[in-house]
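R.M. (postdoc): so does anyone remember the format we settled on? I'll just put the structure tokens first.
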């Protein structure tokens, strides 16, 4: 009888061990809280005086779509290109903070186009491309996950009401770097093009900063800005970006709010 009891206990221990092994293990990334570092230009950046200022960057509104496992540190800055972001030491500041499992959202191009400004301009096929590669490789050195985004669209309709491109070769080079280095890629240019077109020539103004004189106190002389985003526009872009991230980036849903 004693031998039978010992044998039964042994079988029970083995059975319970097997059942434990059958449980789906959480990935390391799902267990921990992560930080999302965002680097880029004014279309992403935090805007001053949010109580009065109707302008927003889309990453400024990103936290409302994320759960408490994710923290956003928005390092995007007005007027920066890949060149100036590196030369001013802004990338070094981000690099030093990166930890394994963090994300780095990378979206440049608007200011890399500034041909008359040698402190910002980059050739899309050389310097711009290599700067993106630098962000990717150095993020991975720290165990972080880089994600490449194309620039958001500018609201530029021609006389016939066709939305036309203003970004040249920069989005293509972003896509090529993503393909060559196997980087998650969000074609935010295409996504926001579809959004602008869905609102139409007039309706799309509310996505940006279109105000008549004295309509809002922050712009007493009025404003007509087709690049930067209103609160509504930035909210819509952030929502579209998160939806794309959930679709394209494995495991990202662990950090987003469920509807």
């Amino acid at each position: 009888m004693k031998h039978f009891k010992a044998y039964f206990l042994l079988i029970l221990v083995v059975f319970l061990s097997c059942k434990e092994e059958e449980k789906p293990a959480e990935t390391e990334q799902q267990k921990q809280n992560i930080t999302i570092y965002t680097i880029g230009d004014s279309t992403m950046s935090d805007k001053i005086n949010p109580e009065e200022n109707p302008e927003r960057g889309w990453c400024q509104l990103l936290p409302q779509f994320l759960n408490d496992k994710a923290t956003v540190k928005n390092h995007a800055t007005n007027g920066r290109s890949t060149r100036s972001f590196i030369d001013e030491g802004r990338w070094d500041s981000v690099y030093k903070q990166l930890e394994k499992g963090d994300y780095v959202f990378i979206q440049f191009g608007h200011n890399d186009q500034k041909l008359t400004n040698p402190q910002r301009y980059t050739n899309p096929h050389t310097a711009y491309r290599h700067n993106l590669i630098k962000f990717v490789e150095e993020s991975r050195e720290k165990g972080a996950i880089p994600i490449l985004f194309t620039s958001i669209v500018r609201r530029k309709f021609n006389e016939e009401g066709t939305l036309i491109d203003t970004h040249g070769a920069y989005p293509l080079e972003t896509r090529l770097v993503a393909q060559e280095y196997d980087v998650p890629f969000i074609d935010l240019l295409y996504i926001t093009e579809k959004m602008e077109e869905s609102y139409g020539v007039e309706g799309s103004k509310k996505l940006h900063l279109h105000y008549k004189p004295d309509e809002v106190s922050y712009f007493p002389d009025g404003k007509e800005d087709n690049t930067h985003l209103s609160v509504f526009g930035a909210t819509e872009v952030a929502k579209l970006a998160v939806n794309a991230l959930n679709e394209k980036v494995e495991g990202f849903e662990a950090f987003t709010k469920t509807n």
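R.M.: ...and that's the designed sequence above, right after the tokens. Also worth knowing: The CA atoms of residues 80 and 140 lie 23 Å apart. The chain has eight helices and nine strands.
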